[in-house]
Amino acid sequence: MTGYNVNRAPLLPQYAPPSPPPCRPTITYKDTDFVADLPGLTYTPNFKHYSGYLKASPGNNLHYWLVESQSTPSSDPLILWLNGGPGCSSLGGFMTEHGPFRPNPDGTTLFENVYSWNKKANVLYLEGPRNVGFSYQDRSINNDTVYNDDRTAWDNFLALKDFFANYPEYSTRDFYVTGESYGGVYVPTLTRVLIQQIQANNLTANLVGMVVGNGELSELQQINSAVDYLYFHGMEGKNEWDELKACCDSSTTLAYCDFTKWIHLDSAGNANPIDNSTCARKVAQLGFLRVWTTLNDVYNIYQDCYQQTAASVKSIRKLRSWLSADPKIRAAPPGFIDQGSLMNWASTDAFGAFPCYMDSATENYLNLPEVRAALHIPTQVPHWTDCNDDMNANYLQQHNDTTSVFDDMIASGYKLRMLIYNGDVDTACNFLGDEWFVEALKTKYGMAVTTARHPWFFQEDAKYILQLAGYRKSFSYKNITIDLVTVKGAGHFVPTDRPGPALQMLTNFINNAANYTTMTGYSAASAPLLPKYLPPSTSPVCPSPAPTTPAPPAPTTTATVTPTSATSAPAKPDAAASFVPFVGTMIIAYLLTFALSFF
After folding, report:
1. What are phi and psi of 93, to 5 degrees?
2. Given pLDDT bands bounded at 50, 70 and 90, which one contains residue 552?
3. Residue 216 Ramachandran class (φ > 0 left, ψ -120 to 50 alpha, else beta)
């Protein structure tokens, strides 16, 4: 062998071939749905959020908005939130109940909700069924016109399956299905499907619990309990109450009478008399119509909006379409108002009239072109509304009582924790009806009462005294545990009416705490406003400085001058005159400090 090296010398740079382009990073589903800049947000959030679409049945595209946890997003649980209706958007719950952002009256800016549920968890808001909110249906693929509970549950399941495929980091997290109002049907029916699919190895998810707030778990129990609730809250008279005694079996007390034998529930959930008898007409009137046709706020009997006008009220829907959609809308005043600074978190007032303007401001904000673009909403998607009235009118309600759904979950053997909570001043889905539903399950299965009914308390901070927040009772049976909780003074929308107690309740449920009185530990301090949203600065008026030029000499005079005693002290400044500016300055400084504490 020659022993020569046959390797070629390197080429000169000008003759070297071009370097291959660097590998482009893969653009993920999550990357495209990232919300980089939300218009009108008055502060800088400390979490990421995403908005886009999840695939359900072919042609059905369900809009979602995911907000990461403000605590430890990489390990905190995942919560799915579903509003009810049927046909109402979960963005209503996002913007007016427990989402991190709330609208100002101008309908163009957002302030911080310091009691947002994403302080505890990553929260996924899903708009369903199709054609609700920003969700839409591609009729070139699917021209289906049928809406019912089973199809809603299946589409929600498919959307979740798509979510876990594109956000695989959540597939092993503790996962909770939550909702309110007609969510009392949505949540159990979806949870049943999830259990079935997990057990069939068709879904990887760590489902550990479900939460229903002021839910329509049983339309039958709601009608039975409404008669009692209205009477004991002064909305029915004694004569009307006494007339119902004739409609009860002699062996049954009036408080536990089954009035539903006198009415028929149609597919829209309306209660109709079975005949023209007095009992049938009375039960339909007092157990149903009295709830939905009174001028009293059906969602909170103590909530009043004194500046309501006929033009500002949502179009009247058919009865029962009002569930989970507050019918009051106000015309929002023009101009930015920092609503966050007006919220009185220290008392039970109406939060600066937020419940009276929140719906109109939300609708205005979500339909701003720049907001729709930031949330990645296609231009062909119609105007966002809180509830789809047309869909509601055509929705087939298959479960006027969800006992059979709970039966299936219990029979599955799947380990599941449940929280059933109610604001106690709601007539749409009153607390008695849900309590009787759970107590009926207890009787049916012989459930153990693991915690007797007792009060629980809210405490913002250890320096404040405890405040009664409601009552709790707990049950267990084999694989199932149920916490039955009331929230004092809250209506249908508990996180709106009692935001602090609502967050504490959720936190303790997720933590599986023995006592719901345990404080959350989260700060309720607001993030600082961005500079352009700060109010004009105000400075105290300072007294002008004394002149530095010497005073002119006294004129010469021949007048007799009275001599001053050699022992006289020099003239002192007026003490009161110098004390007043000092006190005034201190008061102004104190007021400024107090005002700035709200930002």
Report:
1. -65, -35
2. very low
3. beta
Q: Which of 190, 259, 317, 273 minimizes the C-alpha distance to 433? A: 259
d(CA 508, CA 519): 8
Residues recognised as catalytic: 181, 426, 492
User: Token pair of 540, please?
Assistant: 């105290």
Measured CA to CA, the distance from residue 73 to residue 49 in angstroms comes to 11
Strands 60-67 and 136-137: antiparallel
Q: Which two tokens stand for residue 483?
A: 């916490």
* Residues whose CB falls within 8 Å of the CB of residue 420, separated by 6 or more in sequence, listed in order: 211, 212, 215, 217, 434, 438, 482, 483, 484, 485
In a shared domain, residues 165 and 197 = yes
- Name the residue range of residue 307's domain: 222-353
DSSP symbols for 486-507: EETT--SSHHHHSHHHHHHHHH
Contact (Cβ atoms closer than 8 angstroms) between residue 186 and residue 153 = yes
Q: What are the Cα distances from residue 539, in Å, to 168, 417, 531, 589, 592?
A: 54, 56, 17, 9, 9
Q: Is residue 206 part of a domain?
A: yes
Which of 482, 500, 525 is at the close of a domain?
A: 525
Total structural domains within the chain:
3
3-state secondary structure of 98: helix
Q: Residue 64 and residue 484: Cα distance in Å, rounded?
A: 29
Query: Which of 94, 116, 107, 228 has the alpha carbon at shortest distance from 526?
Result: 116
- For 143-149, which contacts have Cβ atoms below 8 Å and span 24 or more sequence positions? 144/57, 144/59, 145/394, 146/396, 147/86, 147/87, 147/391, 147/394, 147/395, 147/396, 148/395, 148/396, 148/397, 148/398, 149/86, 149/185, 149/186, 149/189, 149/396, 149/397, 149/398, 149/399
Q: 265 and 409: one domain?
A: no
pLDDT, tens only, 152-197 = 999 999 999 999 999 999 999 999 999 999 999 999 999 999 999 9
Nearest Cα residue to 78 out of 197, 203, 210: 210
pLDDT in the model for residue 423: 97
DSSP classification of residue 387: B
DSSP-derived 3-state class of residue 404: helix
Q: 337, 353, 369: which is the final residue of a domain?
A: 353
Structure tokens at 599: 């930002």
Q: Return the ∠ at Cα 491 (arms to 123 and 518), rounded to 5°.
A: 60
Residue range 130-159: average pLDDT?
A: 96
Angle subtended at Cα 537 by Cα 534 and Cα 543, rounded to the nearest 5 degrees = 170
